[in-house]
Amino acid sequence: VKPPGPGPETTLVLTDIESSTLLFETMPQGLMDCVMKCHHTTVRAVSLRNNGYEWSTEGDSFLIAFHTAVDALLFAVDLQ
């Protein structure tokens, strides 16, 4: 997927796992490693399926750019 250029339809989505710091502090490291691998794989697959461009990622957060708001919305619903 090519990155969208600047324009009125370009839409950014920021994902984040709620309370992830607490999860990392209380859950076994091996389990969290598996959870994060699954999370990253899922976000990337759903993003590609909805024409998203992975702009950046840090920890459990992704910043994904979409060519249209409709694609961004479909991504968000699909990811849920």
Automatic annotation (TrEMBL):
Please give the Gene3D superfamilies that the UniProt record associates with this protein: Nucleotide cyclase
InterPro entries found in the cross-reference section: Adenylyl/Guanylyl_Cyclase_3/4 (IPR050697), Nucleotide_cyclase (IPR029787)
Instruction: State the name under which the record lists this protein.
Output: Guanylate cyclase domain-containing protein
Tell me what organism the protein belongs to: Haematococcus lacustris (Green alga)
Q: What is the lineage of its organism?
A: Eukaryota, Viridiplantae, Chlorophyta, core chlorophytes, Chlorophyceae
